[in-house]
Specification:
490 residues, alpha/beta, Rossmann fold, five-stranded parallel sheet, Sigma_54_int
C-alpha cells in the first residue's frame, strides 16, 4: 500500500510493471484490507504515517489479524524513525526510505526472498526471536562485522549461517572454526595456513581457514578462547585484508566477512586483560544476542516439533507430543538450551511407544512422571479431524499411563454400571474394525470411507493397540464380537 502524496511512487509502479512485478496501489486502510482479501500478495508496502494519524504498527497489527502473513516493508522519511522502529517490533520485515526508485524496490524484494529461503532451518515464534532475525537480516546486507553473544547451545552458529545465507555472499564459502576446540600449537597454522617445510611435519603447503573463506564468511566461534598472541595477528589481518601463510612471505589478498561468537562477557575480558580492546571493537561493529531458551518459551514447542521431524527415521509414522509432554517441555528450565532440547527429543524418540511422545518419554532431569486421568488427542490431529469426524462417533482419549483392560467376561461386565463414554468408544472401535474388514485391511480406503485422514486412522489403531487390543488378530477373526457385554473398559 503506497502513500498517496508521493508522486515518485507512480514512477515506481510504472517501472515495476515493466520489470515484471505486479504492483497495486490503494489510498486507505479499508482499500488495503479489501485488496489483501481478494488476492494473495507477496509483499505489502505500508507508509510509516498516514494522513488520518494512523501509524504503520497499527496497520500491521490489523492486517495480521485479518490473516496476511507475508513480508511487510515500511515506507518512511527520515523524521519518522520512531514509527519505523515500532513497526519492526510488531512484525515489519524491512523498510525503505523515501524517495526511492525501482532499483531500491528490486533490492528489497531480493533481500526478502533470500531471507525467506534462509529461514527454512530457523524457528522463531517468540517476539524477541523474530526481532533478532529482523536485525540479522538487515546487517546481512552489509559487510559489517557481527559479534554474536549468548549462552552455550542457544544457536549462535545457526544465526551466523542465517546471516551468511541472507547476504550477497550466500553462494560463497561459509567457514566456521571453534577457537576453543583446537590446540594452541595448531590454531595459528589452521587460521593462516602454512608453506611447505614451515615446521616439522609440514610436508606440503596448506591454506588456512581465512584463505578458504575468501569471498565468503568466516565464523570465529568461542572467540574469547583465542590466545592473546594470535589476537594481535588476527587484528592485523582484518585491518590489512591480507594474510601470509606460516613460513611464507607471499601476501594473499582477502575479501571475507567476519562473524564472531562467544558465551563470555568480552567487555569484562577486555577489562581483565584477557582480550584485546582493539580487536573487540573491530569485531563488535554490530552486536547480536541469542536469548536463552527459558527466556523465549514461545519457541520451545515449535523447536521441539522441528527437531522431532529432523530426527524421525525415514518412513516412520508421524509422531506427536501429548499435551502433558508439551506442558513438561515448557515447564523445564533448559540450562543446556536448544542443544539440550535436541538431545531430549532424540531420547524421547527411543523411549516412545507408537506415534505419541508422553511426558515420561522425555525423561527430563528433576521432573516427576506426569500422570493424568485423561489426555486429549494432540492438537494437530484434533484440528485435522474436528469436522471430518462429524459423521462418526466422537471420542475422548483413554488414560495415558494405564492401558485399557479388555476381558471376555460377560457376567462380570453385566455387573458394571453403564458408561456413555465407554459405549461411544466401543462403537467407534467397532466401526473402525468393521470398515477395515470390508476393505480387507486397506488403510487408505478405510480412512476415506470413515471420512478421516490416514494419519488419524493410524493414530486410532495405535490407541486400540495401546489399550491391549490385538487389532490384527481381531481383523482375522470374523466372528469377533465388539458388543458391550463382551468387553470391560476399566
Amino acid at each position: 500500500m503506497f502513500h498517496p502524496q508521493h508522486t515518485v511512487l507512480d514512477n515506481v509502479l510504472a517501472n515495476g510493471e515493466a520489470e515484471g512485478y505486479q504492483l497495486s496501489r490503494v489510498t486507505n486502510v479499508m482499500g488495503c484490507l479489501t485488496t489483501l482479501d481478494q488476492q494473495a500478495w507477496d509483499l505489502l508496502l505500508v507508509p510509516a504515517c498516514l494522513d488520518d494519524g494512523s501509524e504503520a504498527a497499527d496497520i500491521i497489527a490489523l492486517v495480521r489479524r485479518q490473516g496476511y502473513d507475508g513480508p511487510i516493508a515500511v515506507l518512511s522519511e527520515l523524521p519518522h524513525a520512531t514509527q519505523v522502529s515500532q513497526a519492526l517490533q510488531v512484525g515489519a520485515t524491512d523498510y525503505l526510505l523515501i524517495p526511492f526508485g525501482h532499483t531500491h524496490l528490486g533490492q528489497l524484494v531480493q533481500r526478502i526472498m533470500q531471507t525467506n529461503q534462509s529461514c527454512d532451518s530457523v524457528v522463531a515464534e517468540a517476539p524477541q526471536s523474530k526481532q533478532l532475525l529482523q536485525l540479522a537480516q538487515r546487517v546481512a546486507q552489509t559487510d559489517a562485522s557481527v559479534l554474536i553473544n549468548g549462552e552455550s547451545g542457544t544457536g549462535k552458529e545457526i544465526l551466523a549461517r542465517f546471516i551468511h545465507n541472507a547476504s550477497p555472499r550466500a553462494q560463497s564459502p561459509f567457514v566456521a572454526i571453534n577457537c576453543a576446540a583446537i590446540p594452541e600449537t595448531m590454531i595459528e597454522s589452521i587460521l593462516f595456513g602454512h608453506a611447505k617445510g614451515a615446521f616439522t611435519g609440514a610436508s606440503s603447503a596448506q591454506p588456512g581457514k581465512l584463505e578458504i573463506a575468501n569471498g565468503g564468511t568466516l565464523l570465529l566461534d568461542e572467540i574469547a578462547e583465542l590466545p592473546l598472541a594470535l589476537q594481535t595477528k588476527l587484528l592485523r589481518v582484518l585491518q590489512e585484508k591480507e594474510v601470509e601463510r606460516l613460513g611464507s612471505h607471499q601476501k594473499i589478498n582477502l575479501d571475507i566477512r567476519v562473524l564472531a561468537a562467544t558465551n563470555q562477557n568480552l567487555e569484562k575480558a577486555v577489562a581483565e586483560g584477557r582480550f584485546r580492546a582493539d580487536l573487540y571493537y573491530r569485531l563488535n561493529v554490530f552486536p547480536l544476542c541469542c536469548a536463552s531458551l527459558r527466556d523465549r518459551t514461545e519457541d520451545i514447542i515449535p523447536l521441539a516439533k522441528h527437531l522431532l521431524k529432523r530426527h524421525m527415521a525415514l518412513g516412520q509414522a508421524a509422531t506427536h507430543f501429548t499435551d502433558s509432554a508439551k506442558r513438561a517441555l515448557k515447564a523445564y528450565s533448559w540450562p543446556g538450551n536448544v542443544r539440550e532440547l535436541e538431545n531430549i527429543i532424540q531420547r524421547a524418540l527411543v523411549m516412545s511407544h507408537g506415534c505419541l511422545i508422553r511426558a515420561q518419554d522425555l525423561m527430563l532431569p528433576g521432573q516427576p512422571l506426569v500422570t493424568e486421568s485423561e489426555v486429549s488427542m494432540p492438537e494437530e490431529l484434533l484440528a485435522m479431524d474436528a469436522t471430518s469426524m462429524a459423521n462418526t462417533t466422537t471420542t475422548t482419549m483413554p488414560v495415558e499411563h494405564e492401558p485399557l483392560n479388555v476381558t471376555v467376561d460377560s457376567e462380570k461386565a453385566s455387573n458394571k454400571r453403564p458408561s456413555l463414554h465407554k459405549s461411544r468408544k466401543l462403537a467407534e472401535f467397532n466401526t473402525i474394525i468393521e470398515t477395515l474388514r470390508r476393505f480387507n485391511g486397506h488403510r487408505s480406503k478405510t480412512a476415506e470411507e470413515l471420512g478421516v485422514s490416514t494419519r488419524a486412522l493410524r493414530y486410532k489403531l495405535q490407541t486400540m493397540r495401546e489399550q491391549g487390543m490385538d487389532v490384527e488378530q481381531i481383523l482375522t477373526n470374523q466372528s469377533a464380537d465388539f458388543s458391550a457385554n463382551n468387553y470391560n473398559f476399566s
